[in-house]
Amino acid sequence: MVPPRMEELPERPPMRPMPSSFDSDPDFFNENRWRKLGRKLREEPLVPLGCGLTCWALYNAYRAIRRGDSWQAQRMFRMRLYGQSFTLVAMVGGSLYYQADRNLRYQHWKVQKEIEEREKKERWIKELEARDAEDREYQEKRERAKKAIAAAAKAEEEAQKKGEKESKGLEAGSVLKAVKGLKDNKEKAK
Question: What is the arithmetic mean of pLDDT over 107-118?
């Protein structure tokens, strides 16, 4: 599957034909577990009611059995069956009723995930580019240092050659140069 380009992605999730009251609410799409539980309870209030009726019937059946009242226990077991049936019907009915909102939420989640992955990839590329720039800068700095060291070594070599030539001139009998050197040394000593 080829991900769509940024221009193709909508800024908001696609709208249904009939607008939902949740479309403009960002908390509807970015919710934690407690908010989701609260929303589910508000969307389908009959499901917890059916669960409560079922639990109440089971508890009363347990109490009737402990008392030895089989007629009341049978009645509560039937009530439990009715409560479970009511819960099942409420779940199926609520599922059908809120299916469009669930599809919208899923589409929004997919778009958000694609956008997050694209942003992650862009951040990764920027990080690689920054590291590459640092690497290039380091290499340039290293090359400049190598050139400076080479230039200093060359200058030192030239100075040594020049010094060797001067010392050879003194050895060859250049008295004038020797006298000038002594005179310069006296002036430096003062």
Answer: 90
